[in-house]
Amino acid sequence: MLRTILHLDLDTFFVSCERLLDSRLNNKPVIVGGTGDRGVVSAASYETRAYGVHSGMPMKMAREICPDAIYIRGNAGTYTKFSKQVTEILQSHVPVLEKSSVDEFYADLTGMDRFFGCYKFASELRTKIIKDSGLPISFGLSINKTVSKVATNEAKPNNQIKIDAGFEKAFLAPLSVKKIPMVGEKTFRTLCNMGIKTVNTVQQMPLEMMQVVFGKNGQIIWQRAQGIDHSPLTQYHERKSISSERTYGQDTIDLTMLKTTLIAMAENLAFQLRRGGKLTSCITVKIRYSDFQTYSKQLKIPYTSADHHLIPKVIELFERLYERRMLIRLVGVRYSALTAGTYQINLFDDEKKTVNLYRAMDDIRIRFGDRSITRAATIGKGAKTIGNFTNPFNGEPPIVLAHRHQ
């Protein structure tokens, strides 16, 4: 049976949320992101696109090429609320939902045609989302995730497209090769240097040539250019979590050691989020006293995967929780209410160099081990046995990052 995959994308999501809160922004050039010169554009309205503004651009450059735009420092809490509202609507109407980011979703409607038309159903669902949330949303409908996602981008702004089965290659052929998911700037430049600018050219190339140039990724790009994508949806579960605990060999009241442990846990769990492409919106801290009484506190936060946003909240929860002043046997940290996403939502108050720093640190951890680079605040006996880490430096100490946010 051919699959029926729906892809939905909230148009210029952060900008649309701001316009919903302030109608004076409608039809005006709006840019959301870090408002300092070192900030980064997180979202730009369609009115700014003609000037060349795009997400990920340094804010200083955006101000130079589009000085008349309205610049807004983003509010992650607001966007999280609207994202959850749309998620709840989708969860109540589709059988299988994948939330690929705060503003992007996939739904598997396979088999629903026997009861009613999938395109009609998707159209009614889109209308309901627009009516209930007030947010514009576009969708693409086809037999797989790749074609549906490309179709959504072609449908924007605030529109919808269905690609009938068997017409995937014809739909993709005239488009820029850059529109194939996973073709980034570097791959696009390489393809251009090979004289390849449209999907049609990739469709006509031998698979072996793409594999020689791009390795395994070459095969994936070639298959997607043909309209082939068998990747399944990852069912969305709001209550997924990751956690870490430590039971001390000897009960302690050493606050320095306790906080060192918690910071190390919070830092490593944040890395696990980023490595898995996840964001959290709920933090829980647990302590168990020497009499085995266990207590916990949790805090709802805007979606994030950044250490310097999460660590202060973990310490804050611990300080609110630790009231009995008794010896502590165990401490733990849990991040829950996870969703797929990237660091983008944190760009409102962080500089691009902060994002690049995280990427560089994570690359080192992936290559050499979780504890190969860490904050100075996590060095000490409180962090000796956080997780099952091995030191790849054969006895040499890990790289230490002295972080002023501590």
UniProtKB/TrEMBL annotation:
Pfam families: IMS (PF00817), IMS_C (PF11799), IMS_HHH_1 (PF21999). This is DNA polymerase IV. It is found in: Cytoplasm. Monomer. The active site is at E104. Poorly processive, error-prone DNA polymerase involved in untargeted mutagenesis. Copies undamaged DNA at stalled replication forks, which arise in vivo from mismatched or misaligned primer ends. These misaligned primers can be extended by PolIV. Exhibits no 3'-5' exonuclease (proofreading) activity. May be involved in translesional synthesis, in conjunction with the beta clamp from PolIII. Binds 2 magnesium ions per subunit. It is an enzyme of class 2 (transferase). HAMAP family: DNApol_IV. The lineage of its organism: Bacteria, Pseudomonadati, Bacteroidota, Flavobacteriia, Flavobacteriales. The keyword DNA repair applies. Its EC number is 2.7.7.7. Keywords: Cytoplasm, DNA damage, DNA repair, DNA replication, DNA-binding, DNA-directed DNA polymerase, Magnesium, Metal-binding, Mutator protein, Nucleotidyltransferase, Transferase. It comes from Gangjinia marincola. It comes from the Bacteria.
